[in-house]
């Protein structure tokens, strides 16, 4: 069962004092920077969160930079460098990382069907542009393209472990097991998981929404240090409804197996997971015992004060669909650094000197595993934390991992600090696995990689159903949906159409003007609202308005939706700012409550600060109050609530001059786009964007708090050309910052 159990629920070691921000944060007042530098050291309760703004040049994040973030999310700053393009605060409070990949989609798709992607654009505050994908996008963002690791780190080396004389001397007081339990022996009740710990590590609990149909064991007796221990281990298979129980073993304290039952799953079996469970179709065919039978039997066997012992026991109880209040989890009892977990096979060899889960056997022996967890718990109670700390299990585990990889013994930090270390290697060093959900038609190096649990499905719908079940069981998940890409011709037409639409939305007609009017004065007037790209004199216009064409009929609705975009919410645009605006603003920051960031764009050629800026506030109300002040008589600035996210602004800046339309020219939609979209019918991309945006958004909202989630539209690439991708990013229930930051 061990490979199925490396999953989320880790509490990582506190990070060191954060380093200074990226070089792009230049010119901030020293007092403001000092507040930012010390932010993580504040004593109040903390949650994992992302920086208010991203520091990516031109708002584009490379695949290598994505890999930086993912590695840091797994290991923290004690072992890897912080990402260069964003700030991830309180990484040790992250519970899971989930990456959704919408294969076949690009930034163009997102803005072509902007209205339909409403759920996602409102849920994710951070958006960034991605370069066009390479031939293997997933390998790029995981870091596999740089180096394929030799050996299999998950395979234990045959033979005995190194002797204690070769161990690195450590300070016992700093050992995680001493810090949690102290150096003296402890009783059984001290080893039990608290209710809060059970909640953190996803144990089934009474009253929780996902445990409504779970059966309690009715063990509510008074627990003492003499209460009986029972070792429990379950094997599972993969069915159409997720993981289901196929075998349960219960071992009493003396080592006697009191229950060993095969169980027939209720749903169609997709994969027996024989290499882990040892269960085959032939073995399970004659079985008639069902889940409800073993639930009834287990309730009858356990006394009121029974304590269940297991390795990643929460998964076993979820497979049983049962709730039990008194548990000892040996993967948590033998505390490891940074929230990592030792494998059961390793603990059996290092602590008990026995070999289990041998490679020459077909799958694991559930009774053997249950008995081993029981022996490990008894060893802990008999010898105490100090004895275990003296064994220096961390050094032994690192030694074996490096030998299995065909390398000499080195420091773990030295291994992961290499620039070509992949996310998979980082997870393996944490004793964890990656989940990869995809369609069968898709091929990727990731599916054949070590330390990766790959589940292939026939349809996107099946991928979504499996994601709901499997994501909570893994610390790091990649869920890939596949969509049929548009033809290059259609994509190019959509691209031209979208750029024309945004250009026309940025155009206004004003008048009437006389033939002798001062164009310079008119241009100066319009420039006070922001940069003017071009101006043409149209004498017939009798009002100020946007051009009315087929492309701009929905512009009023689109403007309202842009205002509600999560990246724009609480952000205001100001025009007419000068070089001293920043200092003036900081001097009076006490009147701008909730100010989080000051974004000061610069000219890409000259490097000079432009005469407009964006201010980001914590709430819409704070932004509105600030806007009223800044437009008042003391500041005399022009402004409004922001409409254009920074990454979109960077994209629109690249509109080629020849694509700009002469005002007043009627736009006729490219017929091939209309025809192609009509032919697609049920799979119409507009409907697909709405449907899948809502489904993925709903799945995101069901994730546990503290989950870092990325939605990646990789972009498209063909022999005819390429289109950039788009990334959306957020942390479920992330805590917002209250410290203003300056970005030039």
Automatic annotation (TrEMBL):
Keywords attached to this entry: Exonuclease, Hydrolase, Nuclease, RNA-binding
Cross-referenced SUPFAM superfamilies: Ribonuclease H-like, RNA-binding domain, RBD
Region annotated Disordered, chain positions: 1-22
Presence of the UniProt keyword Transmembrane helix in the record: no
Top-level taxonomic group: Eukaryota
SMART domains membership: EXOIII
Molecular-function GO term, any one: RNA binding
Positions with biased composition (Basic residues): 10-21
Pfam families: RNase_T
UniProt keyword Nucleus present: no
Any one GO CC term of the record: nucleus
All copies of domain RRM, residue ranges: 570-640
Gene3D superfamilies (alphabetical): 3.30.70.330, Ribonuclease H-like superfamily/Ribonuclease H
Protein name (record): RNA exonuclease 5 isoform X2
């Amino acid at each position: 069962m061990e490979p199925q159990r490396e999953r989320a629920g880790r509490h990582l070691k506190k990070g060191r004092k954060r380093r200074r921000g990226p070089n792009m944060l230049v010119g901030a007042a020293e007092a403001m920077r000092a507040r930012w530098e010390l932010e993580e050291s504040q004593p109040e309760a903390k949650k994992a969160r992302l920086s208010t703004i991203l520091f990516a040049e031109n708002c584009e994040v490379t695949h290598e930079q994505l890999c930086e973030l993912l590695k840091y999310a797994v290991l923290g700053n004690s072992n890897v460098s912080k990402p260069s393009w964003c700030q991830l605060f309180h990484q040790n409070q992250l519970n899971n990382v989930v990456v959704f990949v919408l294969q076949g989609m690009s930034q163009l798709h997102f803005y072509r069907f902007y209205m339909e992607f409403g759920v996602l654009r409102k849920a994710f505050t951070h958006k960034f542009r991605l370069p066009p994908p390479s031939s293997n996008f997933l390998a790029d963002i995981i870091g596999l393209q740089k180096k394929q690791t030799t050996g299999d780190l998950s395979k234990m080396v045959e033979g005995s472990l190194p002797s204690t004389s070769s161990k690195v001397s450590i300070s016992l007081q700093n050992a995680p097991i001493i810090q949690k339990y102290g150096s003296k022996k402890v009783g059984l009740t001290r080893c039990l998981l608290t209710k809060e710990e059970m909640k953190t590590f996803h144990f089934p609990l009474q009253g929780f929404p996902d445990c409504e149909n779970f059966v309690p064991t009715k063990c509510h007796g008074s627990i003492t240090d003499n209460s009986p221990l029972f070792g429990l281990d379950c094997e599972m298979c993969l069915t159409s409804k997720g993981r289901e129980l196929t075998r349960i073993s219960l071992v009493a304290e003396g080592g006697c197996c009191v229950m060993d039952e095969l169980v027939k799953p209720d749903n169609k079996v997709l994969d027996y997971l024989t290499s882990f469970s040892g269960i085959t179709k032939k073995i399970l065919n004659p079985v008639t015992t069902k889940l409800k039978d073993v639930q009834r039997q287990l309730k009858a066997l356990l006394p009121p004060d029974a304590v269940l012992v297991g390795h990643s026991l929460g998964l076993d109880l979820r497979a049983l669909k049962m709730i039990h209040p008194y548990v000892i989890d040996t993967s948590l009892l033998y505390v490891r650094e940074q929230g990592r977990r030792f494998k059961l096979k390793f603990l059996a060899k290092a602590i008990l000197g026995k070999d289990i889960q041998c490679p020459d056997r077909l799958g694991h022996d559930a009774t053997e595993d249950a008995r081993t967890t029981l022996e490990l718990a008894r060893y802990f109670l008999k010898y105490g934390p100090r004895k275990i700390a003296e064994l220096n299990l961390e050094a032994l585990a690192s030694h074996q991992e490096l030998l299995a990889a065909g390398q000499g013994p080195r420091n773990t930090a030295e291994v992961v600090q290499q620039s070509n270390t992949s996310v998979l290697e980082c997870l393996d060093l944490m004793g964890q696995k990656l989940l990869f959900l995809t369609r069968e038609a898709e091929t990727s190096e990731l599916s054949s990689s070590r330390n990766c649990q790959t589940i292939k499905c026939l349809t996107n719908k099946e991928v979504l159903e499996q994601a709901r079940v499997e994501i909570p069981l893994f610390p790091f998940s990649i869920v890939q949906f596949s969509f049929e890409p548009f033809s290059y011709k259609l994509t190019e037409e959509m691209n031209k159409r979208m750029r024309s639409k945004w250009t026309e939305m940025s155009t206004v007609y004003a008048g009437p003007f006389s033939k002798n009017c001062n164009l310079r004065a008119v241009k100066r007037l319009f420039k006070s609202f922001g940069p003017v790209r071009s101006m043409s004199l149209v004498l017939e216009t009798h009002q100020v308005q946007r051009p009315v064409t087929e492309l701009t009929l929905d512009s009023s609705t689109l403007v309202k939706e842009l205002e509600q975009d999560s990246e724009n919410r609480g952000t205001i645009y100001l025009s007419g700012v000068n070089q001293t605006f920043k200092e003036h603003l900081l001097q009076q920051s006490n009147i701008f409550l909730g100010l989080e960031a000051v974004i000061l764009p610069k000219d890409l050629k000259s490097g000079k600060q432009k005469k407009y800026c964006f201010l980001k506030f914590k709430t819409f109300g704070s932004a509105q109050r600030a806007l009223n002040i800044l437009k008042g008589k003391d500041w005399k600035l022009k402004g409004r609530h922001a409409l254009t996210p920074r990454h979109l602004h960077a994209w629109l800046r690249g509109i080629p001059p020849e694509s700009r339309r002469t005002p007043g020219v009627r736009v006729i939609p490219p017929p091939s786009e209309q025809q192609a979209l009509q032919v697609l019918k049920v799979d119409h991309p507009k409907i697909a964007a709405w449907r899948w945006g809502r489904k993925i958004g709903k799945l995101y909202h069901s994730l546990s708090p503290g989950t870092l989630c990325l939605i990646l539209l990789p972009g498209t690439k063909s022999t005819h050309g390429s289109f950039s991708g788009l990334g959306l990013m957020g942390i479920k229930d992330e805590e917002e910052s209250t410290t203003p930051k300056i970005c030039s």
